[in-house]
Design brief:
Elements lengths: L1 E2 L2 E2 L7 H16 L5 H11 L4 H8 L3 H19 L8 H14 L3 H7 L8 H4 L16 H12 L5 H7 L2 H18 L7 E5 H13 L6 E6 L2 E2 L9 E5 H17 L6 E9 L2 E7 L32 H11 L3 E7 L3 E9 L2
Parallel strand pairs: 4-7
Antiparallel strand pairs: 1-2, 3-6, 4-5, 7-8, 8-10, 9-10
Helix pairs in contact: 1-2, 2-3, 3-4, 8-9, 10-13, 11-12, 12-13
Length: 347
């Protein structure tokens, strides 16, 4: 089976095994999972992609990818105990992987897998954070299944496999689907409280920028930029979790589908008992005849299929706004950008 130029052959270490192994080791040392850019860096090594090609895939600058890469290789060097670079990472990981399979690092595996699951790979496979026993050939059922599905999927859904054919990707997809299910059945209970909206938006922007370092997001109030050191409080009565769902997904979409040197704006306004949040980007835009479809689960715009994504972000946005009894409007022009305007009752 071939995905791009990455092959799964016999017992050799394929990219999906590598990503899951590194993510497991990385989480044990840092308590953090790999970011999207770090996952693409690993995948790029297996596909022999240059930093220029990776920058295009990640939709960010070459310098940004190199900076993230430099930090990532240093962290892997500390975790694996030898110097790791873009050129050496594959050989080092394959050697480490072979040691796992032959039992040379069996002590490490026993530490990370509960004893009761060690000889029960079917049970371990259900735990996303588990590495399989080295005594079992690495069929990686979930990954293989999704890769096979990829060959049969309609073009509009292939991006899902690009994002989710690793166990880590499956975890993120599962979390999003559970949230959508909860919002759809209105099982989610609103918990409104008075919050400092400006501070909330600042925190959301900082969280989003962890995966998009060096990108510019301007926070403004009544369309006037807010200075970083300017203390300003705008208190609104909202559900914090829903507002986070809405703004994070809108900002990630804006960043993902716009030029790395472009500016994203998040404007905050309060008028007529409503909190108004407006996200403006200078990205690829949405075709006019697809504006109503972009909120459907798994939908990917015809001009956005070259980028990875699961097509669930805007679904979460729409359902979160509806549950908050708010309103949403969208304006977009191809190659000029999009404006998403969210209005939520805040009194």
């Amino acid at each position: 089976m071939v995905l791009g130029s990455s092959k799964i052959i016999g017992n050799s270490m394929n990219i999906e095994v590598a990503i899951n192994l590194v993510d497991k080791l990385y989480f044990e040392k840092t308590n953090q999972h790999l970011t999207i850019i770090e996952i693409n860096l690993l995948r790029g090594v297996w596909l022999n992609q240059s930093y220029e090609e990776l920058a295009e895939i990640c939709y960010c600058s070459v310098s940004n990818v190199k900076i993230v890469g430099s930090t990532f290789w240093k962290k892997l060097s500390q975790i694996l105990g030898e110097k790791v670079t873009k050129r050496t990472v594959r050989a080092i990981l394959e050697s480490y992987y072979q040691d796992l399979k032959t039992g040379k690092l069996r002590g490490t595996i026993i530490k990370t897998i509960p004893h009761s699951n060690y000889h029960n790979p079917e049970k371990s496979i259900n735990d996303i954070n588990m590495i399989k026993s080295p005594t079992i050939s690495d069929s990686w059922f979930e990954s293989d299944m999704l890769l096979r599905m990829n060959e049969r999927l309609d073009d509009s859904l292939k991006a899902i496999c690009t994002t989710c054919h690793t166990e880590l990707g499956i975890k993120y997809l599962s979390e999003k689907l559970r949230l959508i299910h909860s919002l759809s059945l209105q099982k989610y209970s609103l918990h409104r409280s008075y919050l400092d909206t400006i501070n909330l938006c600042r925190n959301i922007i900082n969280d989003v920028k962890l995966n998009f370092p060096h990108r510019r997001i301007i926070l403004s109030l009544f369309e006037k930029p807010i200075l970083t050191n300017y203390n300003l409080t705008v208190s609104t009565l909202v559900d914090e979790k829903l507002v986070e769902n809405i703004l994070k997904n809108l900002l990630v979409n804006a960043l993902q589908y716009s030029h790395p040197k472009s500016i994203i704006t998040l404007d905050v306004n309060v008028e007529g008992g409503k909190g108004i949040f407006t996200v403006v980007d200078e990205g690829i835009g949405i075709p006019a005849d697809e504006l109503e479809q972009v909120f459907q689960p798994f939908y990917c715009g015809t001009n956005a299929r070259q980028w990875s994504g699961d097509g669930l972000g805007l679904t979460i946005v729409e359902k979160s706004i509806r549950l908050h009894q708010g309103e949403l409007s969208v304006a977009s022009k191809i190659q000029e950008g999009s404006t998403f305007r969210v209005m939520l009752p805040v009194v």
